[in-house]
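User: Hello, can you help with two protein structures?

Assistant: Certainly.
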Amino acid sequence: MADVVSFRKEEPTGLVRVERAEPILRITLNNPPANALSIAVMEALGEALDAVAADDAIRVVVLASTGKVFSAGHDLKEMTAHREDADDGRAFFERTMRMAAEIMLKIAALPQPVVAEIDGLATAAGCQLVASCDLAICTDTSTFCTPGVNIGLFCSTPMVAVTRAAHPKQAMEMLLTGETIDASTAKDFGLVNRIVPQQYLRQVVDKYAAVIAAKSPQALRIGKAAFRAQAGLPVAEAYDVAVAAMVDNMLADDAKEGIGAFLGKRMPEWDRK
């Protein structure tokens, strides 16, 4: 595996902390103890995702958090306060849910792969955030749930991401019971890729990200977009998407270089633009 990257540049601490060590960007939710996805947190996270989308120097994004909870989902206190609004909170609830949906869509549309780094509980919209990332690595003590049903609120928006990451019946089990599952079960369900001891989490994630960042930037961009586009399509339409992506990829400079390097038995030199 590639060497662990050294993060040296960091923006001032806020609700969302951004560190960069090109070609990897680390975005950390910094709203302990729950890392709740308040309006302010989602605004900051959305801004960070928008910035990296246009940053050609970044190849991989890591999404992490501080404290013992990855994210407890939406800020219920913030939402409850708006029940006193003239419309009983409808406009604020719509804004909150729509903003969360836009965050998940930004992650999907981001040209760079996004790796979730989870240490602790990921619940409701926090679980949605994990499921929306391209890959997820968690500690062996991490837990996951969609517990809305326990408080009279079915996790309908987390459902969209969770049902696309986990098997439908397993996703429905989470949604209907609201029960918390451990890291091993989350891996079996398909929510996470790997489980590691807590003391090695950062090291493993950084090495994982470095391995991906060393691949062709053009192939990563084309591949992620094609993967997202074909998912859920009928098989014939999925192949139409895949064929178009392969043709575009074959015409890209990196494919010419990579194939030439393979045939010439040398290491490829990727176009970093």
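That covers the first. Now for the second protein you mentioned:
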Amino acid sequence: MAHNLAQCRVLVQKAAAIKAKALFLPEASDYVASSPIETISLAKSVTDSPFVLGLQDEAKKHKLAINVGVHEPAQGGKKVKNTLLWIDAEGKITQRYQKLHLFDVDIEGGPKLKESDSVERGNEIVPPFETAVGRLRFPEPSLRLHRQHAQLLTYPSAFTVPTGRAHWSTLLRARAIETQCYVLAAAQSGRHNEKRVSYGHSMIVGPDVYPEI
């Protein structure tokens, strides 16, 4: 987590240097563990997580809002929450979203991953909220969010490589077409451990469906 925080600090500094108004980081930016047991053992509350506290300090120092995915302990200690945080330019956590749709997949010859074994499902859809870059809403479900006048949809992700190759770009472009919103998708990339590799390919897709980045 110390290494990941150091990497994120560099990204914050680069974003601040070009006068960005917000930085969008991926799902599970604090860590990607090699087992459900390790996932649970590493989780810390946002009030005492060095990773989150470090990002709050960076946000305040650089006057830069940060959208970041982290793990939090769930009640009972048997699972974690997969949480997306909005840290405002004052370094305060002002919005949070707990992942609703968990990733359970078993593909023959491909990935086998059951997120629900270690992650507690969220149960709330929070309405869009105002930011310096537009009216933002966390990921699910996009059409309902569009009806609530969301302008930006953010999909912080850690996609597996086979599902990423098959679905990543198509899903993001479909959400942009359906909602006529901008879609911001920050994605983990590369090998995390002996079991997990992420697809990457972060992108921003505009309502005209062509990737901006």
